[in-house]
Amino acid sequence: MRTTRLATLAILAALPLNAFGQSAIPDTIVTATRVPTPAERVPAAITVITRQQIEERGYQSLAEALVAVPGMRLAPSGGLGQQTSGFLRGTNSAHTLVLLDGVPINDASGPSGGFDFGQDLLGAVERIEVVRGPASSLYGSSALGGVVNIVTRKAPTDRSFAPFGDIAGGTQRSLRGGLGATGTVGQFDYLVGGQSISTQGFNNIARRLQTSTGERDGFRGQAATARLGWTPVEGTRLEGLLRWRQNRFGLDGFNDNFQLADDHNYTGQDQRWTGQLRGETRLLDGAWTTGLRGFNTEDRRRYVNLPDALSTQTTSDLYRGRRAGLEWSNTLRLPGYGPASDGALAFGVLYGLEQSNSRSGNEFFTTTVRAQQHSTGGHASLQYRLWERLDLTGGLRQDATTGFTDATTWRTGAVLAVPELNSRIRAAAGTAFRAPALYERFGISPGFVGNPALRPERSMGWEVGTETDIAAAGKSNFATAGWTFFQSRVRSLINYSALDANTFTQSNVDRAKIHGAELGLTLRPFTWAEGTVAWTITEAFDATTRERLARRPEHVLSLTGRVQPMTGLVVAPTVLLTGRSPEGAFASYANSGDANATPRSNRAGAVLNLTATYQLLPEVAVFLEGRNLTNSRWEPINGFATPGRSLLFGTRFAL
């Protein structure tokens, strides 16, 4: 650990490296401040994955798109459809809030309210914004590690009908297709689109295990998106969005001897639909934008395992979760005062509802959750620019959830532009919280009872970093280099504890200490070549035992490139190198005597992906997507191997 710290300090002193890891970003960012703000003036570490990058790098799912984001560690238990947890800046898998066009979509029926990154497809997605660091002052519960906002495609204002689509096929009997259209007709604009993917998949169980029989876990998924907008006059807009997806896939589990094993008749189905209605208008000559939004998201997951040679039990799990809410949001542009300019005040109120109606297990061991909880949150944030180079922001939020103490969170940040050095210096600090999940408060099973008196998990964190554009070879942006150092303390973490000799419950018993660095360098040596190296160092510990937290590797290194060797041809390689990571749990759980809490370690591994795209016509392209070209059997989770080598060939059009 000391060696890592010294190496980090030496690198920080010698060279500022890019914390963002992506070079092509939109002109403005909304997720980080709720106010459209130029990216270089946002006081937070951000990564934006654009539609162009999604296509050029061949991303199919949300998990694939996030794999190279600095600070984000994904832990999949296989390929498409398999449970994929995300650990952002070393926090727990339930500490990342995921939004769809600004609406929270974390599954309320999950054991801790976390998000499964292995399910969502990207056919109608315009971009993905990732904001790292505590963000509860803007979005409330679950944003301890940060926020991921999935933004759907927008309609062009100058075309009434703009169709798009793709079709591809390849190894593992894979087939992918998508079709949609978007446009603007008078005062109305629309988006309709659908996507389907099917694949035979791979054997997810590591070959080293005797219980691995080579059984493949296939996947079939469909998704559809529809949006209709109406702009009767400039500055006033009404919009409705509906997005649906349904996936079916094979699963693996444990046999009667509690060994991880291939299971030929264990299947899963994951379905979600989410909708929102939103209206906004401008008042006071456009200085005040006010809007009202209602939303509803419903998740339905079902897992069925019939008796076979592995297990004599029948398991039928049904999880149904719902999130609904009503939000009033406002942005008020403020006048300048002396050296202060570009002032904006954002404020709003959100009422939310979470419901879970779930039943899992078998006739001998059944877990049920039938509960709901309400929350109300109000927030306000202020930002100003001083002397045309110093951007300051501050925000405060108060949340109240039925059944436990209210949570007050804050965040403040600053960005200083130093044009003399082509640099930007950024610093921020804030607090965040996660409200206890419905299972943690109200779950019931033999030997377990939820704890309605649980308190929220809370964190306090800060970060500081720089970004510098380096001129060379006659180019003002030959390189972009930067670094970010972050630190956080998390307390009142929820984990299992003994209620009596025969019963467990949940309690606020754990604490964590996390610090690390996000380093990177983007080089643009030629007009036809660009490459980014991003190195994340994370040291996350149980504050009681000083043991490393599970599935947080100390080092993650990603290398992404874009090479255009000839007109119309783009080659985009990605290499992901992941260091060793422990498997295990907090001391509070390990001390419970559960054999599954025995510490283990996942070895380091590397994965190589490559996508090549050739633009046949201005509207038509052909592409070849290669995944895991070295056929690595690296295990991101102990016992679960990376999907093997695959190739997909197809064509894409946008008329």
Quickly name the level 1 CATH class: Mainly Beta
Please indicate the count of domains: 1
CATH architecture: Beta Barrel
Q: Name the beta content range.
A: over 45%
**How many DSSP H or I helices?**
6
Return the structural class.
mainly beta
**Spans with pLDDT under 50 lasting ≥5 residues?**
1-26, 585-598
CATH superfamily: TonB-dependent receptor, beta-barrel domain
Main beta sheet strand tally, sense and closure: 22 strands, antiparallel, barrel
* C-alpha termini separation: 54 Å
Give me the Rg, rounded.
24 Å
General shape: globular
The portion of residues assigned to helices is under 10%
Overall mean pLDDT:
90
Count of individual beta strands: 37
CATH fold name: Maltoporin, Chain A
Characterization of the model:
The protein is mostly beta strands and 655 residues long. It has a single domain (2-407, 418-440, 485-513, 522-654), classed as Maltoporin, Chain A, CATH 2.40.170. The protein contains six helices and 37 strands. The protein is globular, with a radius of gyration of 24 Å.
